[in-house]
Amino acid sequence: MVKKIYLIRHGETDLNKKRAFYGSLDVPINETGIKQATHLREKMTEKKVDAVFTSGLKRAQMTGDIVFPDKSKKSEVGFNEKGFGLWEGLIADEIEAAFPKEWQAWLDAPFDYIPPEAEAFLTFKKRVIEAFKNVLENYKQADNIAIVSHLGVIRVLITYLDPKQDFWSVEIAQDGYLEWVLEE
Fold first, then answer.
1. Whole-model pTM?
2. Is the distance from CB of 151 to CB of 172 less than 8 angstroms?
3. Contact of 73 with 51, CB cutoff 8 Å
4. Low-confidence ranges of the chain (pLDDT < 70)
5. How far apart are CA 146 and CA 180, in angstroms?
6. How far apart are CA 8 and CA 172, in angstroms?
7. Dihedral angle at the C-alpha atoms of 89, 95, 98, 102, nearest 10 degrees?
8. Which positions are catalytic?
9. How high is the pLDDT of residue 95?
């Protein structure tokens, strides 16, 4: 049996535009993000989608509502972005100025070092993979599933599905999606 998974990144937010770390901050998409989601809706109209999941954060939910206006959506907090603790809302230069030792430690070992009050990468990864497995288990009848979430979540899922993939090399535009075919 073949199952298609559409991994969709939320539209732009003001904090994306600023290039800030903002993982668990619950912010809306901006005007550009609305245009991106509208463009993505046009791309997705020709795709058959049986079930739509969004993260529990406003930016993913807004994007999902625009891309799939006539479909019911299920919010899954397991697909929320990684929390960056005290770094949230700050750009790299601000983090480096306020937390120089911690910033360098994170640059040296981003999967191992935990920024102040942040979610550990391994905890984040486990949460995302468990949510994904639960979706697959509980929605076996859905042949085509869309997940509207965040770049970090998509990177975790792609590297889980294909361990040869490099986490940092997985890129997706904010008006794009990745299509993954699972053969069960």
1. 0.95
2. yes
3. no
4. 1
5. 10
6. 8
7. 120
8. 10, 81
9. 97
Tell which residue, 76, 59, 65, has the closest CA to residue 25. Answer: 59
Tokens representing residue 39 in the block = 């463009």
**Whether 23 contacts 35, CB under 8 Å:** no
Give me the residue label for tokens 């994904």.
132
- What is the C-alpha to C-alpha distance for residues 45 and 53, in angstroms, rounded to an integer? 17
> Looking up tokens 């609305």, which residue turns up?
34
- Work out the angle between the directed axes of helices 31-44 and 58-67 (0-180°, nearest 10): 40
Tokens of 146: 């869309």
**CA dihedral angle for residue 133, residue 128, residue 7, residue 161, rounded to 10 degrees:** -60
Contacts of 164 (CB under 8 A, 6+ apart): none
- Residue identified by tokens 């040869």 is 164
User: Where is 122: in which H helix or E strand?
Assistant: helix 121-138
Whole-number Å distance between alpha carbons of 182 and 143: 10
- Distance (Å, whole) CA 106 – CA 37: 32
What is residue 1's predicted lDDT score, i.e. its pLDDT?
A: 64
Taking only the tens place, the pLDDT of each residue in 6-44 is: 999 999 999 999 999 999 999 999 999 999 999 999 999
